Amino acid sequence: MRARAVHPLLLEPTYWRTRLREMETVRQSLMIVPRPDLSGNGREVVEFGIRAHDGVRLWGLLARPVWHDGRRPARVRMVGPSERPEVDRGAVEGGDADFVFQEPAGRRLEDRVLDVLRVCQLAVGTDGIDSGRLHFVSPSDRREPDEFLIAKQLLDCKLL
User: Nearest-CA neighbor of 91 among 119, 116, 63?
Assistant: First the structure.
């Protein structure tokens, strides 16, 4: 579906700079658990847990092709609180790394934006990921979420 513009006040740089500085004071506390039950057929899958800006634990899956040498593009996806993260096997077979995480229930928009940016930090800090080819992927039957639109603009403005 077509992307739309967000209200300009949602992109106010001073507000987001302050929030991003606060986010940097919280340790990521990354936890990685191999998932051999989901790995195989040319892909490696791990489950990750990472601390959000407010201490809430975000969790998801990282899948990447084992046959691909060098730096690869990465996709960041989000599922709702009642959905289970699942690997996009087609994307991984195509050579992309796939980061999919479950958004905790009841989060405000600003928290969801920071959650997306925290997962982006994880993605660009992961060995073999090309930080210049990080893409947000929305489910094909839904419009792009506001948190993706805002996060994209913040990344484009180099605020992170």
Answer: 63
